[in-house]
Task: structure prediction
Amino acid sequence: MPSTKSSFKKIAIEEAFITQEIADELAKIIAAGCPGEPGFKMMGDTILKPGPGTEIIHKRLIDVDQGRIKNMDASGIDMQVISITSPGVQVIEGSLAHELTVHANDQLTAAIKKHPTRFAGLAAVAPQRPELAAIELERAVSTLGLKGALINSHTHGEYLDDKKYWPILEAAEALKVPIYLHPRTPAPSMVTPYLDYGLFFAGWGFAVETSLHSLRLIMGGVFDQFPDLKIILGHMGEGIPFYLQRIDNRYLLQIKIGAVKEMKKLPSEYFKDNFVITTSGVAQQSSLQLSLEELGADRILYAADYPYESVDESVQFLDAALMSDEDKHKIYHGNAERLFSL
Ligand code: CA
Result:
């Protein structure tokens, strides 16, 4: 049993791993200068440069066994919901990317079978091959027992509101599993001004990219087509909860002047009905408070973002957060148990 420092059971749901095969392909792409991926190139030139720091991260990403469990125990994490690290296979050529997801999902499933009370998983899929991705999601959920999928935002600068990707969304809705929309560097068409000063990275560019993707899904009518589709956003909703009133307000103005089509519901209503958010990487009471007021404790889930963030900091933050124990139970584990049928 984990040596819990606090009384709350903890399920962390944005916890990363990688297979050696995917890591090798990403290294080849970085070595080739990341053609067509200026954001990922900047990642390769700065954040992912070989060194002691990246070595530790790689070791932790590869380990879906005792080393990971030891780290979980040290921070009192009962269970990790594990998924492929960003940008996953989405910068890799489509057919190979698909093969790598099948292999990664099998590997993750083997780790979960070995540690069924400690690990659960989200499937990797290759949006480059939407039909195959939908088939793989179905296999991953129905045969392997994975709990959903994780997609690392844009694929070659394209977003999931594009109808060619809808087979993936249709499969997720039919299987009643969520898609974790995880950040990566901004799409090639908008990344240029983010390349300076480190803005492409997790401090700002990731949230801009992923919040844009989310709003494209809402404004693109995805949830009228798939009303039961559930999207998970990390990082306290990538800033969207802060802007909900303004997004609605300007949407209503744009309808009045004929600049956008009227949807069945307000953007904020789609956000509250179809999205849940996680605490990954955010340890700020005011952000949590705002999210609680806008969304309620049923739509916020705990995530540690292992191995990129301090798990201890995330636990200390939530343990000390100004909210009821009942809400802490929901955020730490109850909502995850419901969402993933754990
Ligand atoms: Ca992450």
Notes: The chain has one domain: 11-340. The beta strands are 11-17, 79-84, 119-121, 123-124, 149-151, 179-181, 231-233, 275-278, 300-301.
